[in-house]
Design brief:
CATH architecture of the largest domain: Beta Barrel
Number of domains: 2
Strand content: over 45%
Radius of gyration: 24 Å
Shape: elongated
Low-confidence stretches: 1-20, 77-87, 169-174
Oligomer: single chain
Order of helices and strands: HEEEEEHEEEEEEEEEEEE
Distance between the termini: 59 Å
Length: 301
């Protein structure tokens, strides 16, 4: 009887520890080793202490009781060794131009080239903090720091602060301070790298204070199959009746990179000359815009 009691005292604490929730791997690629001898690879979506939910590429969402799980480990750093992991969506943190709040992997480095007119380097310093540096036509620059926080299963929040400007003073009727400024933005995302939706709200201003506005941003991504995902995004600055948006198919290649092929558009407020019934001219404001094919490239190091 004493031996049974001693055994119970030893087993119960271990069982309690095993049943605790582990949220540190939520949203990340893992390998689940089972006591039966098999294993499952996928994105960990939930862990309530009794069972785990993972999203796999071949079987979709599956639920595994914790008592069947021998171990769980991250697959970080094995993109080129694990064929199943190669086909996962590692590029789910970004839309065409903007980023979402889904966590980065630590030490993850991504090169983005939207429209081949800009290049952006994103670096995951930790799982919660990343920095980005970008340039457009080597004439404008931008530096952004982003803090990401997981609110729970598939719910994420991020805050970013960026500053940028022109590398040279040019621009008709504009001072240098009108061509540089800062943007603070908060973003809420729901989902994983394979499927997510985001809404962002920010405020930007030039250093001169002559141009400033609230900025709205929304975007979404869904993995259609192992090689193709679809992204959509839109941005609006209501004060100036200006905005941009578009959609693209994100095609994964075997060389650990991907291409975005789609359409983008730009809207802006424009003044034009109008004529009154009496023949007098006056300035009128209206919304103009244009669309163009979108081609982008991304690569992870």
């Amino acid at each position: 009887m004493k031996k049974l009691l001693l055994l119970a005292l030893l087993v119960l604490p271990c069982s309690g520890l095993f049943a605790q929730q582990d949220t540190s791997m939520i949203g990340k690629m893992i390998v689940v080793e089972l006591y039966s001898g098999g294993e499952q690879k996928g994105t960990l979506m939930a862990d309530d202490g009794r069972e785990i939910t993972i999203m796999t590429t071949d079987r979709g969402k599956i639920i595994i009781p914790k008592y069947q799980v021998k171990s769980m480990r991250l697959i970080n750093g094995q993109r080129k060794k694990d064929e199943d992991y190669i086909m996962q969506n590692e590029y789910g943190n970004h839309y065409q131009f903007f980023s979402n709040a889904v966590p980065y992997n630590e030490n993850e480095v991504t090169l983005r080239m939207p429209l081949f007119a800009a290049f952006i380097v994103d670096i995951g310093l930790t799982e919660e903090f990343s920095v980005s540096f970008g340039s457009i036509w080597f004439s404008a620059y931008g530096l952004t720091g982003t803090y990401r926080k997981a609110l729970g299963n598939d719910h994420h929040l991020s805050f970013s602060l960026g500053a940028g400007g022109m590398l040279a003073r040019f621009g008709r009727n504009s001072s240098y301070n009108d061509l540089s400024g800062m943007l603070f933005k908060g973003c809420y995302s729901i989902g994983t790298k394979e499927k997510n939706f985001s809404f962002g709200l920010g405020y930007g201003s030039t250093f001169s204070g002559n141009v400033n506005s609230i900025v709205f941003h929304t975007g979404g991504l869904v993995q259609l199959n192992q090689k193709i995902a679809m992204t959509v995004e839109g941005m609006m600055a209501p004060k100036y009746s200006a905005g941009q948006g578009g959609w693209a198919l994100r095609i994964r290649t075997k060389k650990d990179n991907c291409w975005d092929l789609g359409v983008h558009f730009v809207l802006y407020e424009e003044e034009y000359v109008a004529y009154s019934p009496t023949g007098q001219t006056y300035l009128e404001k209206g919304i103009s815009g244009f669309g163009f094919p979108f081609v982008g490239y991304m690569h992870k190091f």
